[in-house]
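Q: My labmate handed me this sequence with no annotations at all. I'd like to see what the chain might look like in three dimensions before we decide whether it's worth expressing. Could you predict it?
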Amino acid sequence: MKDLSVNLERLADFDEIVDVRTPLEFAEDHIPGAINAPVLENEERVVVGTLYVQASAFEATRVGAAMVARNIARHLETTFADRPRGWRPLVYCWRGGKRSESLAVWLNLMGWQARRLDGGYKTYRRSVLDALSVWPPRFEYIVLTGSTGCGKTRLLRALANTGAQVLDLERLASHRGSLLGALVGAPQPSQKAFETALVQALRAFSPDRPVFIEAESRTIGRVALPDSLLGAMHRSRCIGVYAPRDERIAFLLDDYAHWFDAPGEFKAQLTKLIGLHSRECVTRWCRLIDEHARAELFDELIALHYDPAYARSSKGHFVELPRAIAFELHPNAADIDAQARALLARLHL
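A: Here is what I predict for the chain of 349 residues:
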């Protein structure tokens, strides 16, 4: 049989990338732009795996082959029904084995020029890890530092609106990075998917221009930053963003307003701070939620939690922080893009 495998460097040669792994595998991470056409569904893969352990490899292969054949037939009738005669797909599975070979063979029998990825997803995943070790140090970063509520993320996105290069880690992570940073209706990606998205973002940047980035700790919600990026951030020049106290409170009241719609969950999050703060203090904050004392609550969180936490996390990490350029931001103002342009002018960019 003709060898249908190609290496990772040929991704761009194909019209479409087809991931034949299960929906669960695909959801965890996949090659950007790929579609999912599983030749085994989640439950079917479990059945085959169980047969392999409890019966024999032959029995698992026999049952699995029948499942794969049915699924391929279904995809030919639905998923691929509208593909043109000259369609050139690249197919991959976990290791570039039987699952991708099965579909590639059938697609070629149909007359399409299908190929399978040598080494499958594992080869792609290895390339992502290699890229994470070499790409982050290639760029000059400008780090936006400052305590919670001063509007760093709004400034970062305003900088993007002006055409500056921006690495928005919180957008990639679907999390604001703080205790209350979970986004409504937007679950976080897996660690692998986050790293895939991060590599895609880095590859889009020009090394001739600086990249603005917001100061983050090692983890953003449940995903972790690679050491190479964290180290590059810690060595980079800093912008010390600050805002008047009343504007910070107004900003937090706006940004975190959804928490007051779920007071039980809000109080559960604050309870996680017991240990950093006394039980009496956290109990008081929970009572302020019940009393709808929103401004008072965030005023105390700024003074007793956010600002001290920022001072602890920044001290000793960002080596250029003592020489940071101070920049006053008005995060609730309508002219946020103009404020971003003013910062770029100060930096002569």
